[in-house]
Amino acid sequence: EPRNGLGPIRQSGDGQNSRVALSSRNCRIIRRNPLHLAFNSWGTHVKRHCGWRFAPLKARPKTLISLRKSQIVALVPGKKKNPEEEKAAQDDVLMREIDDAVREDQYREFGEKFGKPLIAAVVLGLAGFGGYLYWDGQQEAAMEADSEALTAVLDQAEAGNFDSANSSAATLGGESEGAAKSAAMLTQAGIAMDQERVSDAVALYAQIAADESTPPVLRDLALIREMGASFDTRDPAEVVAKLTPLAVPGNPWFGSAGELVAMAHAEQGNSEQAGTLFGEIARNEDVPETLRARARQMAGLMGVDAIEDADEFMAEQELPDGGAASAQ
Question: Which whole-number Å values give the CA distances from 51 to 28, 30, 249, in the listed order?
Answer without folding.
Answer: 10, 10, 109
